[in-house]
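User: Let's play a game. I give you a shape written as tokens, and you guess the letters that built it. Ready? Here's round one.
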């Protein structure tokens, strides 16, 4: 019996402990003894950095609040409480304020300032890392102490705190700040972009949280493309004939959140809604508010009916409805609806607001909050009805993995990402994944959804139709691709040390415009369209693989437009194709001729932040200069942009590098884009077969992100396929072997022994006779058709 009692007691204690409130902060400011409430001390409590000069005067707080300490500006000791002066603020410690968090505090105005107390204090629940608001409440103060409380479950596990912000120049006194937290979940893992993506597999990556294990969900989606529209008229709300809510079961709409300062007042307007509606929600007091349900895929349309219901003949000015939107970055105070506007002749009987278009200023809005902020003496009520909103119909999910348990890695680096290799996927579908953390009885919220946007990687096949003039590149590939980029690569084996070997040269001569270089100084430049990201510009460059944003040009020059200041539009920039710049310890030289605004700088930035240099634009704007870029990589891309996001143009770009004898340097000599994804072969001309280098090709799949042709996602390149030069003449005489290969400007002849070379024109005239030593000899010839004879064997060649 005693054993059973012990077990029950232990379980009960575990449950009570799990649900217990944790006191995070319990500060009564008893250590601030200087000054009095009516005459605060003249010495500021904080330094220029906003930190308390003597933090030991404050009480200890919970160790989970380790991100930020107490701080602020304009803070003074006031005889056992703290004073905020001159419109400044006080910050509490910040850290883990997840779960159900409640703050209680006392506040009042200093004596002689009662007229300034309306909406005098903002309490802001926020992330101190990005200054993202999770919640905000405005309080009116008097010269008498009042007690206030605020609760929220929106805080995060790492950076959350409270800020007391004075909305008045009057002195505000604060005391007895107490913050309690009730745990209801654990920290959500941060899912990272997938790695090693193929048609059939990928690697899921996430940042661990110290949990015991993690649940991985991998799924495909079937989008219906439909929209769900909801119109809430509040007809089912249970209230008496005077509009007072049923205290036991008000039957408020599911998923909505309502806040009332005084529940005894009528919060339902009976028979005063639009178009015969019998009920409307009624906001009466300061702080009365409601919030729509959360729509995880975002609101696509929103409208509502609103009406002011005055209770006096002369309505004071200044009352408003605060409209806040819940976004990816927290709760954002967005718009104000002036109550005085609702009392105009046009709106007196109610007005419909449609804010659908205005919401497009945000990437996504998940919910909308309406809060009443009346001025002192205004007894007007504000009615809401027919709140209509739309959101995308949730997609149908098909799970490849559902809540797959992945144990935490024991003895692993706490900062090391966790990974899981997902295999066996259907190549016809795109996949997504989320991760949840598990510790004890708690399961976290799912991480942000990660889209695994796969692009099929091509597999190169043997080339065909090889001649000295060209060949056909061949490949095969899966279906997740829109077009292909085929690159011809010359892999050079350097025969001698070279200080300025050319890796890339682009003169933008394919850029055509009615505007010319002579127009640049007058600012007469052809402008393109502003973009939200980088897109391919293969039609403007000699090699494919260049990208750019927000372009402008004149004939033979390409550049970027200046910042527009419009959200979603980025200033101009130009990005090179990927290059191997790993030689010479990654140091290369970049030469440009460019134009820009005087005293602005043309920035040249590599993948590595240290791979950086800049060129100043002088008076007149034109400059030609060479700069050195350090720490470049084997897969380097250089980005050119204005340091101050101003307008610029570039005439040419040349990238050179110091190389040594024996180095193998990869140079892309040709690059083309197919018209579609059905093309699986491409004729490549001018391969430049010859000694000292090999010719390869590789193929990269490009897939337009959700059909956006300006946003092409690239696959990993295929392996490199060697193109063997055609042996235009091979003869074996005993152990002697000879070959003739056409090269640019002549032929290359290889013999194992001494041999005589005769060159004839097509009319039979001898053009050249030469005795060749064993090995390879390059012979220069004018363009034309020749008969080459070596060791009694002849072959016909074309020299270009």
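Assistant: Ready! My guess for every position:
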């Amino acid at each position: 019996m005693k054993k059973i009692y012990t077990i029950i007691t232990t379980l009960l204690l575990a449950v009570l402990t799990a649900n217990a409130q944790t006191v995070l902060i319990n500060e009564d400011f008893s250590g601030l003894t200087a000054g009095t409430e009516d005459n605060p001390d003249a010495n500021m409590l904080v330094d220029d950095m906003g930190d308390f000069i003597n933090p030991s005067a404050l009480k200890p707080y919970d160790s989970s609040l380790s991100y930020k300490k107490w701080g602020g500006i304009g803070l003074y000791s006031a005889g056992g409480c703290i004073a905020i002066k001159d419109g400044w603020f006080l910050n509490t410690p910040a850290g883990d304020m997840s779960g159900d968090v409640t703050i209680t505090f006392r506040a009042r105005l200093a004596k002689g300032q009662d007229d300034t107390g309306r909406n005098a204090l903002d309490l802001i629940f926020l992330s101190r890392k990005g200054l993202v608001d999770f919640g905000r409440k405005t309080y009116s103060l008097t010269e008498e102490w009042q007690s206030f409380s605020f609760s929220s479950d929106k805080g995060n596990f790492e950076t959350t705190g409270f800020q007391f912000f004075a909305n008045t120049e009057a002195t505000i006194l604060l005391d007895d700040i107490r913050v309690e937290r009730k745990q209801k979940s654990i920290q959500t893992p941060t899912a990272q972009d997938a790695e090693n993506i193929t048609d059939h597999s990928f690697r899921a990556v996430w940042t661990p949280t110290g949990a015991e294990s993690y649940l991985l969900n991998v799924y495909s989606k079937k989008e219906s493309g439909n929209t769900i529209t909801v119109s809430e008229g509040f007809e089912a709300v249970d209230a008496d004939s005077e509009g007072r809510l049923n205290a036991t079961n008000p039957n408020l709409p599911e998923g909505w959140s309502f806040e009332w300062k005084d529940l005894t007042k009528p919060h339902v307007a009976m028979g005063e809604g639009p178009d015969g509606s019998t009920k409307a929600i009624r906001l009466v007091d300061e702080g009365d508010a409601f919030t729509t349900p959360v729509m995880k895929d975002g609101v696509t349309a929103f409208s509502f009916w609103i009406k002011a219901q005055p209770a006096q003949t002369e309505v004071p000015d200044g009352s408003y409805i605060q409209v806040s939107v819940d976004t990816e970055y927290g709760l954002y105070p967005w718009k104000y609806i002036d109550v005085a506007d609702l009392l105009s002749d046009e709106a007196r009987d109610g007005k419909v607001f449609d804010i659908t278009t205005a919401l497009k200023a945000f990437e996504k809005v998940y919910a909308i909050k309406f809060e009443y902020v009346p001025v002192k003496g205004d007894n007007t009520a504000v009615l809401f009805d027919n709140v209509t909103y739309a959101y995308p119909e949730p997609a149908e999910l098909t799970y490849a993995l559902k809540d797959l348990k992945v144990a935490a890695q024991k003895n692993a680096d706490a900062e090391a990402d966790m990974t899981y290799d997902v295999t066996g996927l259907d190549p016809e579908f795109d996949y997504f994944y989320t991760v949840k953390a598990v510790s004890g009885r708690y399961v976290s919220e799912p991480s942000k959804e990660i889209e695994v946007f796969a692009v099929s990687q091509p597999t190169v096949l043997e080339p065909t139709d090889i001649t000295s003039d060209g060949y056909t590149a061949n490949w095969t590939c899966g279906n997740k691709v829109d077009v292909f980029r085929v690159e011809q690569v010359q892999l050079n084996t350097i025969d001698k040390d070279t200080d300025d070997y050319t890796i890339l040269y682009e003169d933008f001569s394919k850029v055509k415009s009615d505007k010319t270089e002579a127009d640049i100084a007058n600012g007469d430049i052809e402008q393109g369209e502003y973009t939200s990201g980088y897109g391919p510009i293969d039609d403007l460059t000699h090699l494919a693989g260049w990208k750019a944003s927000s372009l402008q040009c004149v004939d033979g020059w390409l550049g970027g437009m200046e910042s527009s200041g419009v959200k979603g539009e980025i200033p101009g920039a130009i990005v090179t194709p990927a290059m191997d710049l790993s030689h010479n310890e990654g140091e290369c030289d970049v030469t440009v001729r460019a134009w820009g605004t005087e005293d602005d700088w043309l920035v040249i930035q590599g993948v590595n932040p240290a791979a950086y240099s800049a060129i100043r634009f002088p008076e007149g704007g034109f400059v030609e200069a060479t700069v050195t870029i350090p720490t470049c990589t084997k897969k380097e891309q250089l980005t050119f942009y204005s340091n101050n996001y101003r307008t610029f143009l570039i005439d040419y770009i040349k990238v050179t590098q110091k190389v040594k004898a024996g180095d193998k340097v990869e140079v892309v000599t040709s690059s083309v884009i197919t018209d579609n994804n059905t093309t699986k072969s491409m004729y490549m001309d001018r391969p430049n077969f010859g000694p000292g280098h090999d010719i390869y090709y590789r193929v990269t799949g490009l897939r337009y992100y959700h059909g956006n042709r300006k946003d092409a996602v690239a696959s990993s390149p295929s392996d490199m396929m060697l193109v063997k030069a055609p042996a235009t003449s091979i003869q074996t005489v005993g152990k002697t072997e000879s070959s003739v290969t056409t090269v640019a400007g002549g032929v290359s002849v290889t013999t194992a022994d001494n041999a005589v070379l005769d060159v004839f024109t097509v009319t039979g005239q001898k053009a050249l006779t030469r005795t060749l030593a064993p090995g390879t000899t390059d012979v220069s010839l004018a363009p034309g058709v020749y008969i080459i004879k070596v060791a009694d064997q002849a072959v016909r060649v074309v020299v270009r």
